[in-house]
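Question (not urgent): is this output format expected?
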Amino acid sequence: MQRIAFKMKLMPGCQVEYKKRHDAIWPELKELLKESGISDYSIFLDEETNTLFAVQQQEATGQSSQDLGTHPVVQKWWAYMADIMETNSDNSPISKPLKQVFHLD
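Got this back:
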């Protein structure tokens, strides 16, 4: 397993809506993530900066959630989330990979 992390940016005042949408994550998106080898996926919010911090486990041969952008379910999710996040022109969230500098099991 490999752990990856990335950060994204939420629009001001959208914290409640972001949580609401993720609390009701679509079953087909959840299934796609699991089928792609993604597990132990968490997203944290820094309320002072509206920065989202995501961390997930992925199988060595799998893809991260950031690599699934050509899948129709992911494209539909991105469009659904585009009004509350900073996005690229294709509605994908602007995200920045983060380098792991410490881990304790």
